[in-house]
Design brief:
Helix 8 packs antiparallel against helix 9 (231-248), helix 12 (299-319) packs parallel to helix 16 (459-484) and helix 16 runs antiparallel to helix 17 (489-514). The chain is α/β, with parallel strands linked by helices. Strand 18 (669-674) and strand 19 form a beta hairpin. Strands 15-14-12-10-9-8-23-24 form an eight-stranded mixed beta sheet. Strands 16-17-18-19-20-21-22 form a seven-stranded mixed beta sheet. A five-stranded mixed beta barrel has the order 1-2-3-5-4.
Length: 785
Amino acid sequence: MRQAARKRPLCAACIALMFLILLAKAGDLPIFGEPPDDPLLLAAAEQEKTVQIVGTVRNRTVKARSVQYILFNSYLRSENKTIPIHTITMISTLEECFQADAVLLVTGILSKPEAASNPGQFDLRSYYESEQIYYSVYAESCKVLQSGGGIREKLIGIREMLSLRLDQLTDPETAEVLKAVLLGDRTSLTADSKRSFQTGGILHFLAISGLHISLLGQGLLKVLQKAGLPLPPAAILSFLCLAFYCVLAGAAPSAVRALCMFTVFLGAKLLLRTYDSLSALALAGILMLVENPAVLFASGFQLSFCAVLAVSLCWPAVSWLLPRQIKKPGKLSMKSGVNQEEGKELTRRGIRAWIRYYTRLFLHQACFWMVMTASMLPLTAWHYFEISIWGMLPNLLLIPAAPILLASGVAGLLAGMVSASAGKLLLLPGAWILRCFQSMGNLIRELPMATWVCGKPGGWQTCSAAAVLIFLTAELLRRKTAAKKQKGNPKKQSLQQGRRFAAAGLLLALFLLLFRFRSPWSLTMLDVGQGDCLVLRDRTACFLVDGGSSSVSQAGNYRILPYLKSQGISRLNGILLSHPDEDHMNGILELFEIIREKQATLQIDVLYLPIWMKGSEEEAELIQAAEAVGTEIIYAARGDSIRTRELEIKVLYPMTQGGIRSGNSGSMVLSVHCGTFDALLTGDLESDGEAQLLPLDQTYDYLKVGHHGSKGSSSENFLQQVQPRIAAVSAPEDSRYGHPHQETIDRLTEAGTEIYVTRDCGAITVEGRRNGWRMYGYLDTMPVK
């Protein structure tokens, strides 16, 4: 270890810097560009007050319904003082477009980016914090204090002009993908296109990554040198073009890393020194972390650096274990005097030699892909919760196709600025390649187990698996060095031992990463805003109870599905719908649509509806969506039950005949028994429906409070019968209906019940333990008093 540190001091310095940043994060040291904890600023953001912000435009991104600006040198202006905010995002729906470097006075609503409140949910706040952005302002009006322009505006203008030109040169479906590949603009990328590339395991190509920068840089350098330009001016011109392209495409962490490494590569060629990819990677890491320490926690930074380490360390550690070196066959030459039969035999030998060559080349590339996939598996599972099973073939084809695609795209785009006909012609190869990859992704989506939903591993699992892979790589490199000094049979024995050691180490890493300790059962109330969604599972089955929201857009896609993926759930044995209000079922309809469009690996076996919905108008849309994906429909009434290994779910309401048979008070009510734990799930049940349930034949540990804590639910008489120890309320912050109402909170408090609300706790989970159960919130907050 000491010898390695002496050989590569930059690597040691980069590791030490990362360690110091982790300590600073753990110690909550203010080195990540945080604004001061001013009470006025914090109160304005928490209460979403209208404030005045002054800032300078750094970047502008045009979206479908708004324009997003990044303002730097920003501060909040109040009557008595100014409070620095540093960098802030501004969301504008105003007609006026503001230039880069313009100084604006923005009047708008101040808030913090939304933090994740459920497992698996995308954490927008953490994403922005990695870019040192801690606040957002929704502009109501803007005043230009100082006009903009300059280099930044020219770069943004060029990017927007190129984006518009792509729309004119090719069809919309191809243009949206080319914008992502060439310009780093994914705002117009549809979910269907994104899923096709993700299922094929090549989603990384839809971002300006190290692959783009490396291919374009190396290609440009070779073209300039073949054109007769000496190395020094060719290197300088290549660097300037690549730096311009990197900034133009948004300077993503992976692109900046690749640019730094390409610069070191050019310097090594100019100075006639040996290029060391690990030292170049370490230098790039140091420069990026010094400029912005928070980038260490960005997924793009982590995945990009991990990919380079896999190529520079893991592949050399494994490649020597492959059976034979790949040698290209020589040209077939016919000697004079060879008869016809001998000529045919020589031809057959030549064909067999080329077949063996391409077979070994394919196996070699397949092994390379597997090493890359295994090396990045801890981060892939941590960030995305699923793994592409059939991604090898698209990735193997991407290696030779990427240079052609990029050359065609860049040449076509530049030529299209002069001549539309020339641009369309040059774009044809790149567009055809993209269509092929997209079709391949669509085909893979139709295959069984297109992706494996592995779930999110624990932090200790991710670190343990990474540690095993690091040790495995180091030991294989040591054995490789030792094997080079051996000759004959000892070397063959070292190869066999090395292969067994590599296989054992990989299996151990996979076990540590993918093993899941499941509690006997769990009940989770997700935070879906103004709506309801509960996930009930044991080790053999999983059920969804309701799923919708009237305050969160696409709750099924952005709240429910990510949670299921994070838990490794790819099959729902059933969905139980309490009643057909939008805030209870629109997310379920989204899930059906996602399954129908093959946008996720998910299966829903049965949809349970209240018996009174049979033949009603409300069921038509649900029936159509369920039948489209092969889901069975069952109508449930009092007396029906579902039993699994650990769970027993009984339907208490509605009645088979009589009772309230519509609306909130017709909600399906479920009695859930898990070991020593009993829960009562009441949908939107109100007092008149509660009266239909009484008397109850038992008390309950857990009450899912009806109708989001409305004052018309959880009557005093009902609570006396249920006697809940804990109550869970699904209600958002600043509910338009004022949920939960204070009257309900008071009645629950008087009954001696601890109250948990999703607006405060995030997702609320109860899980079984060997000798009982425990309850906790995703945000680790205390119950309401």
